[in-house]
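A sample follows:
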Amino acid sequence: MLEHLQWLDVLIMTVGITITYVIFGITGFGTALIASSLLAFFIPVDKIVPMLALLDCSAAAANVMRDRRSAVMSEVKRVVPLMILGSLVGASVLLYSDPQRLLVYLAAFVIAYSLYSLSGFKPDAEFTPRAVYPFGFIGGIFSALFGSGGFIYAIYLSGRLKDNNSIRVTQSTLIGFSTLTRIVIFLLAGVYADLSLLLLVLILLPGMLLGVYIGRRITLALSRESFLKIVNLVVLLSGISLLIKAFS
């Protein structure tokens, strides 16, 4: 794979990955939305998700290791069992039915919710702990179906937690669990036997780390209102991306 890449290609990908992980460093999700379309110009599409899984897991680990005390483990413990259950359901749907119709419904919900949140129409309100049931379960389903469940967890956490850094680190912890599951699957399937893929991940790793560092610094300087606006904008873009994917 690398033999077909020029140094300028690698430079463009590195810049793109850095920008992508600035967003990840702020919100804890969104890499597939931002990076996939750029990376598709340079590497095979079937290599993008396994590569991003390695980078996402590393980025999540970097976030959690630096600020692990900010992670709200009570929320992680609530979400993870439902994430696993939802992932099993999502995998079954993927194998035995057409998931495209579900993608339209999810996109419509995400777009409507993010527009509602960005409008400023409603006052800040906290979700009750029971909100974890739909958000954790649905997030697991769509992580398994489309590799895009992070924004569902972001909606839940932003309605439960008040501190920007707690939201970011808790989100990263959940993404870490989710991507680690995918890495194990790809490893068992032999995807990572492609040494050129692993080498490209190593080349892009410094750009990822720089992006996460910049994103963290930005998050610490943001007010809660500005932070939630950024999160909801990324959620909105995720919904639009899913809607386009559903009809493409």
Q: What stands out?
A: The chain has a mean pLDDT of 83. The CA atoms of residues 187 and 193 lie 8 Å apart.
